[in-house]
Amino acid sequence: MRVGVITFPGSLDDRDAMRAIRLAGAEPVALWHGEHDLHGVDAIVLPGGFSYGDYLRCGAIAARSPIMAEVVDAANGGMPVLGICNGFQILVETHLLPGGLIRNDHGDFIRRDQRLRVESTDSAWTNGFTAGQEITIPLKNGEGGYIADESTLDRLEGEGLVAFRYLDVNPNGSLRDIAGLRNERGNVVGLMPHPEHAVEPGFGPDTRDAMRSGVDGLTFFTSVLKSSVLS
Question: 113 forms bridges with which residues in the sheet?
Fold first, then answer.
């Protein structure tokens, strides 16, 4: 399986995502924001970072870059797409996922090992988890507060589209503790925490299990290898 990782000006976790894909057993393919070519990949990762310097609004300029027209078409056709942090912001800016992401409610950039609860396993990127599973994934963002109107929030809850929820502490003021979403089809997932930073023993976050969960993020990338959602 070939998984493309798009580099935008200001991306800084693209190489980490490519390494995670390789560790999962797939072939990472570097994609460039200025092209209209997905190079025949089977899935796509929009990595974290500060695309276009976060000017205008996080993810807003990247969402209008040439390659995103191809990504939107591919996602609408069923191709698995994962948006991580800035990638999540890009997904909401392209309306592949609903809502928006705004400045953290405390006004500060935050970095922490964040506990999450897996709310949905019905997606290309979460099928390797079990519903209700608790995982620990690194988090780092300044504009990670998820917002949507009440009717959208109710629909997300009612249709089981909340993929991940923050546990112990809400780090950025996200409504209803939402840390990540999936779309109705289950091929598009976005989240603020960084699973690509928890894929190798000894390099993931410390927990009460003394590094046992340092590879919680790897399941995102192994999930897509066995996904039945592939286009």
Answer: 138
> For the segment 135-159, what is each residue's pLDDT rounded down to a tens digit?
999 999 989 999 999 999 999 999 9
58 catalytic? Reply is: no
Active-site entry in 93, 143, 196, 197:
196
**The one catalytic residue among 33, 70, 85, 197:** 85
Domains of the chain, CATH where assigned: 2-225 (3.40.50.880)
- Residue environment code for 3-13, b if the CB has 16+ CB neighbours within 10 A, otherwise e: bbbbbbebbeb
pLDDT single digits (tens) 188-225: 999 999 999 999 887 665 555 444 448 999 999 999 99
85 carries an active-site annotation: yes
